[in-house]
Amino acid sequence: RYGLFTQTSTSDSSIIPSSSAKLLDNGIDMIEFLGRVVGKALYEGILLDYCFSQVFVQKLLGRYSFLDELSTLDSELYRSLMQLKHYDGDVEELCLDFTLTEELGGKRIVHELRPGGKNISVTNENKLHYVHAMADYKLNRQILPFSNAFYRGLSDLISPSWLSLFNANEFNQLLSGGSQDFDVDDLRNNTKYTGGYTESSRTVKLFWEVIKGFKPTERCLLLKFVTSCSRAPLLGFKYLQPGFTIHKVPCDVTLWASIGGQDVDRLPSASTCYNT
User: Fold this and answer.
1) Which catalytic residues are annotated (predicted)?
2) In this predicted structure, what is the pLDDT of residue 76?
3) How many structural domains are present in the chain?
4) What whole-number distance in Å separates Cα of residue 187 and Cα of residue 71?
5) Residue 276 domain-assigned?
6) Is residue 268 included in any domain, yes or no?
7) Is the pTM for the entire model greater than 0.85?
8) How far apart are the C-alpha atoms of 98 and 96, rounded to whole Å?
9) Range 113-122, long-range pairs (CB < 8 A, 24+ positions)
10) What pLDDT score was predicted for residue 255?
11) 251 is catalytic
12) Residue 247 sits in a domain of what CATH number?
């Protein structure tokens, strides 16, 4: 809604702060606040249904990113730079210089990759410097103000020494869970029943039978419907907070018949923190 984050162009659709965030009123402050929200989720063991770009997480962990990691952020730019790196012709004919042009808020903004970059042409002799300078800007310099703000918020709740124990993949797994499928038996063994249901109830047995017949994507959609996150906790459903619950809701037949099947006495609980 606010344009604070954008999806990367890679297949995993991870997210990274958008350059346009700095044009918003209090954009940096909002990113710092989001850092606190994520820190609170990590502290409470609450899963979030997205993952951050590896490059962004590297910044949160205080680590520098290198050229090869550009493929995890912008695969098209990475391919273009690799083609330029191995180009056999006269690079100067491509009319490149040491700048990067970015469109923000309807305006074209030129960033110099090195001092005086707009006056430095890319040649066969300096093309490797250009490739690495472009990668450095995209991977490190461009997102640094946002990662610093997010880190300030995150570290208000999560100790930096604790963060340093993990790499980028492990951080994302802690944040959003494991693989894109889950063990139905594990979920069943860690499910609570309330409102009159028990594990031996006919409806409950039918529920688990149907879930086992689902495709992995369908199971993940069900999990997202109930918990708002499509992935299981990294260490299994024993660590889902709060626990997965199936609750029996009695329905008054007369009431349902009179209002067209809408149960107005019950508040919605799907896709919320109740996991019910």
Assistant:
1) 273
2) 92
3) 2
4) 36
5) no
6) no
7) no
8) 7
9) 113/137, 121/92, 121/95, 121/96, 121/97, 122/91, 122/92, 122/94, 122/96, 122/97, 122/98
10) 41
11) no
12) 3.30.2410.10
The rounded distance, in Å, linking the Cα atoms of 255 and 114 is: 72
Q: Does one domain contain both 57 and 191?
A: no
Q: Are residues 162 and 198 in the same domain?
A: no
Length of the chain: 276
At 20, list the tokens.
């346009």
Residue recorded with tokens 């006269």 = 90
Are both 159 and 242 inside the same structural domain? no
User: Is residue 273 one of the residues assigned to a domain?
Assistant: no
Q: What is the CA radius of gyration of the chain?
A: 25
180 token code pair:
């894109």
Please, what's the b/e burial string for 90-107 (b: 16 or more CB within 10 A of its CB; e: otherwise)? ebeeeebbbbbeeeeeee
Claim to verify: residue 22 and residue 152 sit in the same structural domain: yes
Torsion region of 184: left, alpha or beta (phi above 0 gives left; psi -120 to 50 gives alpha): alpha
pLDDT for the residue numbered 257: 44
Indicate whether 133 belongs to any domain: yes
Distance CA 55, CA 123 (A): 29
pLDDT averaged per 10 residues, the chain (length 276): 76 81 86 94 83 91 91 92 94 94 84 94 95 95 93 93 88 80 90 89 93 90 85 83 82 47 53 61
Residue that the structure tokens 């249901």 belong to = 197
Residues ≥6 apart with Cβ < 8 Å to 220: 180, 181, 182, 230, 231
pLDDT at 258: 41
99-127: per-residue pLDDT in tens?
999 887 778 889 999 999 999 999 999 99
Residue 231 belongs to what domain range? 184-258
Q: Provide the pairing of β-strand 107-112 with 99-104.
A: antiparallel
Question: Residue 53 is part of a domain; what is its CATH number?
Answer: 3.30.2160.10
